[in-house]
Amino acid sequence: MTLHLERHGEIAVVTLDNPPVNALSRTMRAALADMADRLDGDAGIRAVVLAGAGRLFVGGADIAEFDGPPQEPHLPDLLARIEAARAPWIAAVHGMALGGGTEIALACRYRVAAPGSRFGLPEVNLGIIPGSGGTQRLPRLIGVEAAVPVVAEKRMLDATEALGSGLVDRIIDGPLVVGAVDFARDMLNHPLPPLARDRSVTDPGPAYWQAAEARIAKASKGQSAPPLALLALRHGVQHGFEAGLRQERETFLRLRAGDEAAALRYLFFAERAAPRPADLRGTPPRAVARVGVVGGGTMGVGIAAALRNAGLPVILSERDQPGLERGLTALRAVFDAAAQRGLISDEAASARMAGVRGVVGLEALADCDLVIEAVFEDLAVKQAVFKTLASLCGTDTILATNTSYIDPRQIFNGLRGPERCIGLHFFSPAQVMKLMEIIPLPETAPAVLATAFDLAANLGKVPVRAGICDGFIGNRILKHYRAEAEALLREGVPHAAIDAAMRGFGYAMGPFEMQDMAGLDIAFLHREAARLRGETVPETAGDILVRAGRKGQKTGGGWYDYPTGTRAPQPSDEVARLLAPLLGPARAMPAEQIVARLIAAMAAEGQRIIDEGIASTPQDVDLVEVHGYGFPRGKGGPMFLAARKTITGIPTRIPT
Questions:
Q1: At what angle do helices 144-152 and 134-142 cross, to 10 degrees?
Q2: Which of 564, 563, 474, 569 is nearest to 517 (CA)?
Q3: Cβ(549)–Cβ(512) below 8 Å
Q4: Are 115 and 171 in contact (CB under 8 A)?
Q5: Residue pair 12/5 in contact by the 8 Å Cβ criterion
Q6: Of 103, 423, 526, 550, which has the maximum CB count within 10 A?
Q7: Contacting residues for 489 by C-beta, under 8 A, at least 6 apart
Q8: Contacting residues for 171 by C-beta, under 8 A, at least 6 apart
Q9: What angle do CA 438, 444, 448 make, to 5 degrees?
Q10: 140 Cβ contact partners less than 8 Å away, ≥ 6 residues apart
Q11: Could you tell me whether strands 11-17 and 47-52 are parallel, antiparallel, or unpaired per DSSP bridges?
Q12: Any idea which residues carry the catalytic annotation?
């Protein structure tokens, strides 16, 4: 960590140099406070330019410090010191100013920015709110209506928006520090503007606050921080800067010490580490410029869309022309829907579709750098695809199977060049879901494995390496989650009560609702295949429903009834009749106990997976559950909860 000082006549330039993101650590805060005192004591300095070294201005506070008590000098005190400086400070922002980076810029008298720079207060992503005046200074600079989305709704402002709103005083087109020094000299010839804290702010009225509260509560999905960020901002608008600052800081410290913030910090570090496994550092990935996707069904279309969203050209292969036309139509619908929702422009949708070449057969995939198979989950079908691909493609072509359960060693058995083969388990819809399970074979080359992680990063995915077993990490845990839910059902707990308990915990839907949405027949067919192999698989309630024609929403009935035209689950007398022989006397169970049972089952299986080496760390298990299976992000994951003993009934170390 270094703080550089240069003098340009009567202008001082202070540069923060704390790689990789110039975080405002305790050491950096202390150095800045000392620098402010030093420069105030130098009568020859009339203004101070504050800049950041490297690729951005300031990436925020040092999150690693959040697990301990706050340490002096506290950031609010440092910002008050900068704000009260004898010589005005000018923030020179390039890249990004995030969290504390935006807050320190707000405390400066002026702000200039390089083109393309961005400002944001993303603290709510970590279960906290801005804690150093962000909720108070920002609305006084740009108005309440512009500030609320930044403070409570994760909105970023680019340099042009920041200039138009009044957050930035000038965009510097040339060298930033040179332009900032010139700006400082110009500024000295004019009266200083009021400090941000001293500016007036207009209360937009009750109707605005009510609408904002409703919007933020809906979007935050039960997370505590976004509504509290709005509340702190509103308190300052209605009761003054100092009162708002006190409420902001009290809320920040309370949230910082809470379970939700701890869970989100845990996931932040896990997600940051996921794309860079230690054993692959120094192993360069292969270049991937041409990608083939085999299969134009739901999964193949989603994978093709994800690849095109990342700018990769795609060859989509199907076995016949009608199947290819259906796949291309579905892919076009994905891009058109994104354009209709305003996520991309119509031109971008057309360009993404133009980057897809549809072909019948596999011959056109011969020159691809990577081919991803996404055909039906049937071993013989997959083996046939790869037998043909191995004869067509060069030995440098990476061959990847998207399989949910099947052992990749069986899929690739007997192929020449097994070192180029790998499993890539995408999650549906593949263009949306962030998880990618990466399943190497024992023979997979390190460069191929590194390429898989590099591809995941390019697609915006969270990659997790999984060992080979039935269901890998995620589906193996899902099997035990569902089995425990069914055990509760057999004990007499209604499936609607189980679903309600898990929704209350934070899942978007409970285990039985989820089965209805995905289709009960998928797991049923997997169980049936195991039975055909001679494995002992007990009869489940799901088997009874599927054999009665109840496969979920797509057949109008699964665990629940779905009247025509609705996906809202309705109680089913038919389900009660079909399952009556299996179920014990109906009994009530507290929601907390239901949750504890199901999470304990997940954590127990997660620990077994770690013990067997299928997953490397508890963090890997939790990333799979959060990003692939809807585990509520603010809870961290089953392994996190087990370690913290947050839920009664889950031991610290799950026994195997």
A1: 150
A2: 569
A3: no
A4: yes
A5: yes
A6: 103
A7: 495, 498, 541, 579, 582, 583
A8: 112, 113, 114, 115, 159, 160, 163
A9: 70
A10: 196, 197, 198, 199, 200, 201, 241
A11: parallel
A12: 103, 123
Say whether pLDDT at 526 is over 90. Answer: no
Q: How far apart are CA 174 and CA 178, in angstroms?
A: 8
Residue 465 has pLDDT above 70, yes or no: yes
In angstroms, rounded to a whole number, what is the distance separating the alpha carbons of residues 397 and 448?
A: 10
Pairing of strands 356-360, 314-318: parallel
Which CATH architecture fits 258-286+472-493+588-656? Orthogonal Bundle (1.10)
Asked if residues 318 and 364 have their Cβ atoms less than 8 Å apart, the reply is no
555-562: long-range contacts, CB 8 A cutoff, minimum separation 24: 558/512, 558/515, 558/516, 558/520, 559/495, 559/512, 559/513, 559/515, 559/516, 559/520, 560/496, 560/512, 560/513, 560/516, 562/516
Domain boundaries, the chain: 2-251, 258-286+472-493+588-656, 288-465, 508-586
Tell me the average pLDDT across 447-476: 97
Closest CA relative to residue 312, chosen from 337, 332, 292: 292
Range with the poorest average pLDDT among 280-289, 395-404, 638-647:
638-647
Measured CA to CA, the distance from residue 108 to residue 14 in angstroms comes to 13
CB atoms within 10 A of CB 400: 30
Single-letter amino acid code for the residue at 571: P
- Kind plus residue range of the DSSP H or E element containing 436: strand 435-440
What distance in Å separates the CA atoms of residue 302 and residue 18, rounded to the nearest whole number? 40
Which pLDDT value is given to residue 377? 86
CATH number of 2-251: 3.90.226.10
Tell me which amino acid residue 397 is.
Answer: T
Q: How far apart are CA 257 and CA 249, in angstroms?
A: 12
Identify whether the C-beta of residue 50 lies closer than 8 Å to the C-beta of residue 94: no
- Residue 345's pLDDT band, with cuts at 50, 70 and 90, is very high
Segment 330-340 shows an average pLDDT of 97
Q: What is the mean pLDDT of the chain?
A: 95
